Amino acid sequence: MQERLKELQTEALEKVSQSANLKELNDIRVSYLGKKGPITEVLKGMGKLSAEERPMMGALANEVRDAITSGIEEKQKHLEEAAVHEKLAAETIDVTLPGRPVKTGNHHPLTRIIEEIEDLFIGMGYTVAEGPEVEKDYYNFEALNLPKDHPARDMQDSFYITEETLLRTQTSPVQARTMEKHDGKGPVKIICPGKVFRRDNDDATHSHQFMQIEGLVVGENIRMTDLKGTLEVFAKKLFGEDREIRMRPSFFPFTEPSVEVDVSCFKCGGKGCNICKKTGWIEILGSGMVHPNVLEMSGFDSKKYSGFAFGMGVERIAMLKYGVEDIRHFYTNDVRFLNNFQVHE
């Protein structure tokens, strides 16, 4: 039995030294040290030994097990290190090779216009206000001096969901909601960017969904000159320092007086070209002094408070600034179009 244990030790260690990978090594471990291995079989015959021989044989069996286990562990360590070195050699990176370019995203031109306008007005003390796109008829029309059956409602063909709810046709409801929250106490100084919806046939200059930015200032002694000065700063910031504006009388139910605002053509400088249709001026927004009825319905004393409001289509501003001829380009997600606005910082 003693000789057999020594033979098993020599045999096992020889196979361990010749093993080429971890799988072979594990097979040797199971074969010799497992419950069904030859060492276990030898030890089953210890019952035939005398009482004096059993301790000696048990100690020898443990020595054989330990020797084989040590040999396997040593070989395992060597094989694992060799595997790591082999993997590192196979995965060597040539750091002198040029890197692959990483394609990065970019702000959409409409987002860029909105952020540029927001930055301008925030710098002038305005805050950005938001409201729901699914709006109540009251805030979309009635609170803006457009009661039921008012003929001016026909100016905006609306998407109604129920008799009292619709997709907002303008961001003006945000102004009404904000004034209502102030409980008749000024000042109010906000801009309201967001999506609006109108039933319209999509073409190069019209869309059933588009973006608006409106502004509102309410306080004591607010005058038309304040509105003009604000819009002059806006026009120069967005279209160039040498731009001028002009105001033309118009009509909006929620402002009185109301004006359309034009900016001097940034291509021809006012001389007349195809962009300004030979007039030297380009219409950019509508504005006016807040109608006293709108102030009163929002809880403000129209004898104490006055205000001005203005509104513009973001797509129109973007089309003018970037020379885009078709509004639908903004919504087709054509990468070739969007790449024209790539910014490299």
TrEMBL record:
Gene3D superfamilies noted in UniProt: Bira Bifunctional Protein, Domain 2
Nucleotide-binding listed as a keyword: yes
Subcellular location(s) of the protein: Cytoplasm
Domain of life: Bacteria
GO terms for MF: phenylalanine-tRNA ligase activity
A Pfam family of this chain: Phe_tRNA-synt_N
Chain ranges of the Aminoacyl-transfer RNA synthetases class-II family profile domain: 111-320
Binding site for Mg(2+): E256
Transmembrane segments: none
PROSITE patterns reported in the protein's UniProt record: AA_TRNA_LIGASE_II
Cofactor note: Binds 2 magnesium ions per tetramer.
HAMAP family reported in the protein's UniProt record: Phe_tRNA_synth_alpha1
NCBIfam families the record matches: pheS
Subunit details: Tetramer of two alpha and two beta subunits.
PANTHER family referenced in this protein's UniProt entry, alphabetically: PHENYLALANINE--TRNA LIGASE, MITOCHONDRIAL, PHENYLALANYL-TRNA SYNTHETASE
Similarity comment: Belongs to the class-II aminoacyl-tRNA synthetase family. Phe-tRNA synthetase alpha subunit type 1 subfamily.
Protein name: Phenylalanine--tRNA ligase alpha subunit
Source organism (scientific name): Cytobacillus eiseniae
Taxonomic path: Bacteria, Bacillati, Bacillota, Bacilli, Bacillales
Gene that specifies this protein: pheS
